[in-house]
Amino acid sequence: MAYTSRLLNAIPGIRHAFLDVHETAAFPYAELAPVKLVHGNEVHHYQQPLPTRPHADAVFTAVAGQKVGVVTADCLP
Protein backbone atom coordinates (compact mmCIF):
# COMPACT_ATOMS: atom_id res chain seq x y z
CA MET A 1 0.00 0.00 0.00
CA ALA A 2 1.41 3.40 -0.95
CA TYR A 3 1.39 6.00 1.79
CA THR A 4 0.91 9.70 1.19
CA SER A 5 1.41 12.85 3.22
CA ARG A 6 -1.55 15.09 4.01
CA LEU A 7 0.82 18.08 3.87
CA LEU A 8 2.25 17.16 0.46
CA ASN A 9 -1.23 16.39 -0.89
CA ALA A 10 -2.20 19.99 -0.11
CA ILE A 11 0.43 21.39 -2.52
CA PRO A 12 -0.94 21.82 -6.08
CA GLY A 13 1.10 19.97 -8.71
CA ILE A 14 2.94 17.69 -6.27
CA ARG A 15 2.60 13.95 -6.85
CA HIS A 16 4.24 11.68 -4.31
CA ALA A 17 4.07 8.32 -2.55
CA PHE A 18 5.94 6.34 0.06
CA LEU A 19 6.09 2.67 -0.94
CA ASP A 20 6.08 -0.37 1.30
CA VAL A 21 8.42 -3.34 0.89
CA HIS A 22 6.13 -5.17 -1.57
CA GLU A 23 5.63 -2.17 -3.85
CA THR A 24 9.32 -1.36 -3.69
CA ALA A 25 10.22 -4.87 -4.84
CA ALA A 26 7.88 -4.55 -7.85
CA PHE A 27 8.84 -0.97 -8.75
CA PRO A 28 10.23 -0.43 -12.31
CA TYR A 29 13.58 1.10 -11.25
CA ALA A 30 14.65 1.68 -14.86
CA GLU A 31 12.08 4.52 -14.93
CA LEU A 32 13.43 6.17 -11.76
CA ALA A 33 16.02 8.93 -11.38
CA PRO A 34 17.16 8.17 -7.82
CA VAL A 35 19.55 9.86 -5.44
CA LYS A 36 21.85 8.20 -2.90
CA LEU A 37 20.53 8.93 0.59
CA VAL A 38 23.15 10.64 2.77
CA HIS A 39 21.21 11.83 5.87
CA GLY A 40 22.24 15.44 5.35
CA ASN A 41 20.53 18.52 3.99
CA GLU A 42 21.10 18.24 0.23
CA VAL A 43 18.24 18.48 -2.27
CA HIS A 44 18.88 17.48 -5.90
CA HIS A 45 17.08 19.22 -8.80
CA TYR A 46 16.85 16.53 -11.50
CA GLN A 47 17.11 18.00 -15.01
CA GLN A 48 18.78 15.25 -17.05
CA PRO A 49 20.26 11.77 -16.59
CA LEU A 50 23.61 11.64 -14.81
CA PRO A 51 26.27 8.89 -14.98
CA THR A 52 26.06 8.32 -11.20
CA ARG A 53 23.44 8.91 -8.53
CA PRO A 54 23.89 12.27 -6.81
CA HIS A 55 24.17 12.26 -3.01
CA ALA A 56 21.10 13.94 -1.50
CA ASP A 57 18.17 13.47 0.86
CA ALA A 58 15.47 14.73 -1.48
CA VAL A 59 14.97 15.12 -5.21
CA PHE A 60 12.51 17.05 -7.35
CA THR A 61 12.00 17.65 -11.06
CA ALA A 62 9.92 19.65 -13.50
CA VAL A 63 10.57 17.11 -16.29
CA ALA A 64 7.10 15.90 -17.29
CA GLY A 65 6.60 12.20 -16.65
CA GLN A 66 9.99 11.65 -14.97
CA LYS A 67 9.87 9.62 -11.77
CA VAL A 68 12.36 10.65 -9.09
CA GLY A 69 13.00 9.15 -5.69
CA VAL A 70 15.05 8.47 -2.62
CA VAL A 71 15.58 4.79 -1.87
CA THR A 72 15.93 3.98 1.84
CA ALA A 73 16.77 0.77 3.65
CA ASP A 74 14.62 0.93 6.76
CA CYS A 75 13.47 4.47 7.42
CA LEU A 76 10.30 6.28 6.46
CA PRO A 77 9.56 9.98 6.73
From TrEMBL:
Keyword hit for Transferase: yes
Gene3D superfamilies xref list: CNF1/YfiH-like putative cysteine hydrolases
Coiled-coil segments: none
Catalysed conversion reaction: adenosine + phosphate = alpha-D-ribose 1-phosphate + adenine; inosine + phosphate = alpha-D-ribose 1-phosphate + hypoxanthine; adenosine + H2O + H(+) = inosine + NH4(+); S-methyl-5'-thioadenosine + phosphate = 5-(methylsulfanyl)-alpha-D-ribose 1-phosphate + adenine
Molecular function GO terms recorded: metal ion binding; S-methyl-5-thioadenosine phosphorylase activity
The keyword Transport belongs to this UniProt entry's keyword annotation: no
Domain of life, per lineage: Bacteria
Entry keyword set: Metal-binding, Transferase, Zinc
One Pfam family per UniProt: Cu-oxidase_4
Family as reported in the entry's similarity comment: Belongs to the purine nucleoside phosphorylase YfiH/LACC1 family.
Protein name listed in UniProt: Uncharacterized protein
Source organism (scientific name): Acinetobacter baumannii
Top-level taxonomy: Bacteria, Pseudomonadati, Pseudomonadota, Gammaproteobacteria, Moraxellales
